[in-house]
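Bumping my old thread because nobody answered last time. Still need a sequence for this structure:
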């Protein structure tokens, strides 16, 4: 896709557990996506941050005249992608599968590869791989968390999103956060089907009474009354800086756009707390980890703990409690500059750290 579509890709990928990364085998096309600033790189990093646990890497256009199902070309692409996927945080042996396809001819998609087309591929086809992948577990008995992606009027107010945790039943009383509005569930739809209840991982449409459609924004979270999600205007995060814009340095005062589950908000880095040396952090005993003095600025590739501030209340969780609601990306001028996770939020009942 075009780089202006990345924000849409973010909102889609944040609902997924499994991603299919499509790479073109055509000469020049793989290279464009893979070089610095290419879409293939950006999509992989975003997928990992947004919680896509497993990847199927599909090498497409294998029928192309410059490729003609060449094993050398397939191996070259796989050889370049593996180290990059590893550095992005994927366990390549466990969570990534590669396969060649031709979307145009439909080869190796629904049925296994015809040997007359490609003699060297003995593996499964795309649909087989997708049917076998195990989806990560979520807690159906836990507190309800449903980040709202969209809302509309249809004989009442309907919200859409992916139920990340808990179970919703018709008749339930829930809370829309951050504006603390009590609502009642009057109907639940999965695709076009009306259902009585929905469990974690489902993309649902929930009809609620007690709130007007204009009082809901994308990024609000439908949550249980007993254990609601917190709403904050600041949080501490561990960030990995990927690629700053030319000549930019990352310091307190840096402004960017924060994407966290279905929230898109402008934010400012108000304080750099410490820089983490990933090489040393792994080797030494974590208890003896020396905190470095506070950095004034950090460069590309750095991992830093910092405090992030936004103007409007946003609903987030610590990454250690709810990974799906605690990981985010920072973007400026249409480029992803950093990925991160929420490491600390203000105490219960407060939206900021200082009283």
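Sorry it took so long. Here it is:
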């Amino acid at each position: 896709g075009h780089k202006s579509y990345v924000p849409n890709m973010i909102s889609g990928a944040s609902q997924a557990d499994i991603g299919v990364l499509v790479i073109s085998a055509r000469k020049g096309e793989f290279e464009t996506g893979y070089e610095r600033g290419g879409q293939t790189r950006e999509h992989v990093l975003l997928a990992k941050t947004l919680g896509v646990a497993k990847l199927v890497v599909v090498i497409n256009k294998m029928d192309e005249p410059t490729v003609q199902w060449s094993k050398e070309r397939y191996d070259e692409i796989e050889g370049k992608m593996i180290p990059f996927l590893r550095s992005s945080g994927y366990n390549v042996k466990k969570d990534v599968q590669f396969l060649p396809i031709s979307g145009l001819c439909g080869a190796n998609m629904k049925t296994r590869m015809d040997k007359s087309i490609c003699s060297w591929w003995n593996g499964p086809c795309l649909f087989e791989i997708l049917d076998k992948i195990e989806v990560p577990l979520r807690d159906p008995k836990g507190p309800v968390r449903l980040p709202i992606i969209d809302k509309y009027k249809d004989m009442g107010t309907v919200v859409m999103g992916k139920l990340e945790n808990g179970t919703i039943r018709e008749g339930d009383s829930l809370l829309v956060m951050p504006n603390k509005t009590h609502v009642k569930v009057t109907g639940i739809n999965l695709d076009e089907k009306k259902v009585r209840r929905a469990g974690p991982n489902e993309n649902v449409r929930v009809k609620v009474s007690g709130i007007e459609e204009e009082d809901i924004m994308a990024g609000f979270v439908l949550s249980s009354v007993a254990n609601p999600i917190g709403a904050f205007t600041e949080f501490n995060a561990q960030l990995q800086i990927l690629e700053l814009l030319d000549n930019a340095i990352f310091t307190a005062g840096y402004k960017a756009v924060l994407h966290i589950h279905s929230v898109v908000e402008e934010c400012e880095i108000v304080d750099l707390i410490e820089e983490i040396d990933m090489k040393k952090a792994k080797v030494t005993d974590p208890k003896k980890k020396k905190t470095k003095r506070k950095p004034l600025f950090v460069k590309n590739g750095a991992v830093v703990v910092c405090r992030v501030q936004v103007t409007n209340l946003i609903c987030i969780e610590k990454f250690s409690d709810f990974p799906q609601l605690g990981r985010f990306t920072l973007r400026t001028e249409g480029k992803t500059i950093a990925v991160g996770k929420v490491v600390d939020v203000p105490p219960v009942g407060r939206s900021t750290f200082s009283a």
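The chain has a mean pLDDT of 89. Let me know if any region looks off to you.
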